[in-house]
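Bumping with the actual sequence this time:
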Amino acid sequence: MPRTTADHRAGSGLGTAVAGMALIAATYGMARFGVGLFAPELGVRRPELAGVLGWAAAAQFTSYALAAAVAARSADRHPRAGVLLAGVTATAGCLGVAVAADPVVFVIAVFVGGMGGGFASPALVPIVDAVVSRRAAATGQSLVNSGTAVGVIGAGVLAPLVPSVGLAWVVMALVCAVAAPATWYPVRARADLAAPRRAPDAPRSWRPLVVPGAAAVVAGAGSALIWTFGPLAVTGAGVVDAGGVGGLWIALGLGGVLGTLTGVVVERWGRRRAWCLCAGASALAGAGLALSVGTGAAWVAYACMAVFGAGYLGLSGVLVLWSRQVWPDAAGAGTSVLFIALAVGQAAGSAGFGVLGESVGFGTLGLVAAGLSVLGGLIPSTGGSPALDSPKSAATRS
């Protein structure tokens, strides 16, 4: 006899959340953000790619946004297909980067790999909501979101252990290829994930997503500096040896593990205060990393990468919970919309910092990034009803 949704929730739904975390680790921490991690070595081993690293990052953010846009229309109805698409695109992108020597081929490979995260996050939101008990749903979503930190740590550990950049990307491709079916298999037969989560003609207001969407664009632009150019600037200035770049990303990942607490923070403080706190951490990291480049203090660089990891993973976690609270009947689509906004800001920031960096120093770039993060953090406080953002409301909707 088929099991009901209640029967499934009675089991250990957090196991599925752990599998989802592994998929996010593969598609985000490795396939997507691995470009920034390996940028210094790519520039040395494949000098013909050095001039397009900034544009490759912008292409990756753009492809992520495009994939998330597709997922916005299908994630709540076909989340399992989204999981498999995430695995296919991330695996193909990693393999492309592994062999790419031509700048055009490299940018195309990065573009394809960036789609993985865009398909994964929106698909996992309805899956976790369906499998994990309602009381633990916010924790389950935060656990999945922390996969980015896990993936970044894994990539950081991998970097010094492999003899070549190409082999590292082959290993990451294998991780992506395994994580997707591992996430899909436990929910392959769930009937509640095959049914539409709302009537096709049900009206839905976009207004609740306007303010967090605007905040995500601005904060995303500020975060792009560290994701794309942080390790390059730190190693280029001699603050950290090029061989120690993996340690910077491990620090980022360890800080990002704090993202598992996002659900608790939102339930106690409300999503606006939680967003402002995380944006403030991102701003502090941007300014601090610029200080480390100027002073040569390696410990400051490591500390700022950890603070940035906590801030950025917190920001993305708040966006997931925000979408679940304002669009509870279509949380996957809402997550897509807000993550698209975040990626649009990151794409613009990557391209903008790349152009601006040709005429100003990293110190100025760090201050600009910090300013954008502060502005993005303050935007939610300017719109919406504070009553709808009370901790009590957040806990109830979660």
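The tokens above came from a reply further down the thread. The chain is about 75% helix and 0% strand.
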